[in-house]
Amino acid sequence: MTNESFEVDAAQEGERLDKFLSIIYPEKSRSFFQKLIAEGGVRVDGAAKKGSYAVREGEIVDVQIPDAVETAILPEDIPLDILYEDDDILIVNKPKGMVVHPSIGHTSGTLVNAIMYHCKDSLSGIGGQIRPGIVHRIDMDTTGSLIVCKNDEAHACIAEQIKAHSVNRVYEGIVCGNMREDEGLCDGPIGRHPTDRLKMAVTEKNSRPAVTHYKVLERFGDYTYVEFVLETGRTHQIRVHMAGMGHPLLGDELYSRGKSPFKNLQGQTLHARTIGFIHPRTGEYMEFSAPLPEYFEHLLNVLRNRK
Fold first, then answer.
1. Is 18 annotated as catalytic?
2. How far is C-alpha 299 from the geometric centre of its chain's CA atoms?
3. DSSP states along 147-200
4. d(CA 30, CA 51)
5. pLDDT per position as a tens digit, 129-188
6. Can you give the pTM of this predicted structure?
7. 18, 88, 139, 252: which one is catalytic?
8. Distance (Å, rounded) from C-alpha 179 to C-alpha 176?
9. Which is nearest to 244 in space by CA: 197, 206, 199, 208?
């Protein structure tokens, strides 16, 4: 059982309890929290409430996420690009187009299906019945480094580091337009988009703090090659922050206007290059980097040749 507590701030006052929780946990649905509330897994200032209850500023919402149960998700023999592996963790280089864990419309071919086959019974269960071993995730069309935990002790240790913002996460991406500054940071809280449930947005309402550091690596006139360092790890964080600056990621049709002029580009040009953390057993700092995928290297060469 995972227990967490959240204080309602002024911007969140008046939200339904189930909606309040679905914004905090964007990977879970409102129906999940409606069921959890009905089963007594959520309390407000120590008292049980209905899902329709409107939260008030200053209230403390306690959430108990149940432990994993037997899953019907099947192992699949899908090749993995493994950067590192030991008895506690697995570092994989996730390819473009692969969903991290099963969801509606993606019940097979996910990273979870692949690691269940590779790791057999050696996966943490804290992530829940459809997320064994998964302590963090990256978007379907984002490539790169991802930590998988093989036991609950490793999962709890890595999760605590992520919560404390001590995991070093470095991304590389190509954005549209010529960025004005050589480096800087975006400090804008991110929450669910007020009208489009598929999107996140920089908003004060029902949001969580989000900070992205950026540094220009190379300029191509109409496009800019950028390094990003995450201080926090919100859903779609880099994509939202860059779009908010007027520099959406190349290929990101969700947060940009119109389609990319480059043919066969599948989703945003974003790569989780480096991940660094304290190993849960040895206590030593470890860092791993995933090479840029072939499509990304090809795009860079195309842009360089256009100069």
1. no
2. 24
3. EEESSHHHHHHHHHHHHTT-SEEEEEEEEES--SSSEEEEE--EEE-SS-TT-E
4. 9
5. 667 899 999 999 999 999 999 999 999 999 999 999 999 999 999 999 999 999 999 999
6. 0.76
7. 139
8. 8
9. 199
